Amino acid sequence: METITVKVVRKTSEAEDIASFELARPDGAPLPAFSAGSHVDVHIPGGLTRQYSLCNDAGEQHRYRIAVLRDPASRGGSVGMHQAVNEGDEITISAPKNHFPLQHAAQTLLFAGGIGVTPLLCMAQRLAATSADFTMHYCTRSAERTAFLKEINASAFADKVQFHFDAGAAEQKLDIGTALAAPKADKHLYVCGPSGFIDHVINAAKAAGWGKDQIHLEYFGAAPQDTSSDGSFDVKIASTGKTYTIGAEQNIIQVLKENGIEILTSCEQGVCGTCITRVLEGEPDHRDMYFTDDEKEKNDQFTPCCSRAKSKTLVLDL
User: What whole-number distance in Å separates Cα of residue 114 and Cα of residue 117?
Assistant: First the structure.
C-alpha cells in the first residue's frame, strides 16, 4: 500500500476538543489529487492507523487538512493525534481513497453531525465551486463545539449552511421532516456523523420516500454490538484446508494472526474496508458499517476485523 511522508505544518484548535492538522510534503512537492469525500489512513505514533476525511478544497495539492475529535471513548487514535502529533512532526499517511464520492444531482442536501462535517465541508466547497444547488445542515451540541464555524460563515457558500445547536433555541433546531420533504429522483442526500445521527436522517429519508440510491452515508465508527449471545465457530483456510476455532471472546483477525496468517487491517471496526476477505462457503454475521444491505445479502465477502459467522464454518479465500 502506497504511503506518503508528510509534515504537520499547522495544528489548530477548531472547537472544543477538535483540532485540525494541515499536512504537506516536507519538500513542498505536490500531493496526490483527491476528490470530495476522500479520506487518508493516518499512521499514529504508537502503531495505530486511523482514517480521517480530507476537509480542505479538493482543488488543492499543496496540502491536506484533517480534523480530529478527542473522543473520551477513544481506543487510542484520537488521543494519540491530540497528544502525540504536533506542528513540525513528520507522520506517514496513505494516498487518498474515496468510498463516499459526490454524484451529479440537480439538488444536493448535506447533513453533518459533529465531526462528521469533515467530508461534507469538502463537498460543500466543491458544490459551491461548480455553482451547484445545495443546502448543508450542520448539527452540533453548541457553537463552542462547532468546528470551522467562523470559516463557514466567512465562505462564499455561507448562505447555503444552516447551523443547528442542541443547546440553542427550539426554532433553530433541525426539522428533519421539512428538510427532507418533496424527494425527487434528481435529488441526493449525504450524511456523516455519529451512528445515531445517521440512523435518524436515513430513517426519516426512507419514511419521506427517498430512494436508497439517493441516500449516501459514511460512518466514523461502528455502533455498539450486543455480544452476549456470541458463540464459537470455525474458519477454514481454502488454500491449506486448515481449520481454526474462533472463541466467543476472540475475533478472526486475532486467531489467524496467532497462527501466522496476516490480514491487513486499519480501523478494526468494519468502517474502512481494508480487511475485506472473500467468503467461499458459509454465512457471515456482518457487523460492519462498510457494505450496503444488498452487498451483505450476497454473503460472498465480509470484514473479519469485527464480523463473525452465523454458520458453523466459514471457508475463506486465503
Answer: 6
